[in-house]
Amino acid sequence: MALHHNRASRLTTAPGFARHGAASCAIWLAREMPVLLEGISALVGLEPNRMTARSPRRSEQEGKFWKTKALEEMSNAEWESLCDGCGRCCLNKLEDEDTGRIYYTHISCKLLDAGLCACKDYPNRSAQVPDCVRLTPDNVRSLSWLPHSCGYKLAAEQRDLYWWHPLISGSSETVHEAGVSVRGRVEASEDTVPDEELENHIVSWPAQLPRRAMLKKRPTK
């Protein structure tokens, strides 16, 4: 492998480092560190006494139930409110038997209202779709196909919810505004697509988030 000189990565040696051992280097650092810090401060426009690590910013969501309660401690109303209404978990998925990798499709459960991103018969969903997986405090920690942005997964880790979550925005429309929901992206219902054809409908977007959805705050229009 040929090596070439890269001016951008060229290093300069501080006096004393190349010629002396570790003890001498430590002495040199102790003597010269104040001067170095002063020079760095001048370059970045900071005062020397401000060259300290900032304290972590306190989350504005501290004290909210999803930050203070374990999933098992939540009321039924609190539990249900963690759903952001994206509808991604209602898409048909395929799992590679050898690797365990999950592949999403844009084919939905037959009970999903793709416009509202809601179940058409939520109370009786298990009776109508026997293999529908009901989320519980136990399984949300292990289900690999739940989106990383899922409110249940975030709450299980006591992490902040995204700005577009209804519990943060106060509106059920922000999940659509952020481009996170499946609205307008469902190709068909599982009623019309045979299982053997699902491989032809694999898509990558359900495992990703749009850039605006990852912002700290709701973008201004």
Description:
With about 220 residues, the chain is of the alpha+beta class. It folds into 2 domains: about 15-50, no CATH class; about 65-215, no CATH class. It has 7 helices and 6 strands. The longest helix is centred in the N-terminal third of the chain and has 23 residues, at about 20-45. The chain is about 25% helix and about 10% strand. The two termini are about 50 Å apart. Strands 1, 2, 5 and 6 form a 4-stranded mixed β-sheet that branches. A two-stranded antiparallel ribbon has the order 3-4.
Form type: globular
Beta-strand portion reads 5-15%
Which class do the helix and strand fractions yield?
alpha+beta
Number of domains: 2
- Assign a percent range to the helix content: 10-25%
Compute the average pLDDT. 83
Q: Runs with pLDDT <50, length 5+?
A: 1-29
Task: Characterize the biggest β-sheet.
Answer: 4 strands, mixed
* Gyration radius, rounded: 26 Å
- Measured between the Cα atoms of the first and last residue, the distance is 51 Å
The DSSP helix count reads: 7
Report the strand count: 6
Order of helices and strands: HHHEEEEHHHHEE
Question: What is the topological layout?
Answer:
Layout: H1 22-44, H2 65-68, H3 76-81, E1 91-95, E2 102-108, E3 112-113, E4 118-119, H4 125-128, H5 151-156, H6 166-169, H7 174-177, E5 188-189, E6 202-203
Parallel strand pairs: 2-5
Antiparallel strand pairs: 1-2, 2-6, 3-4
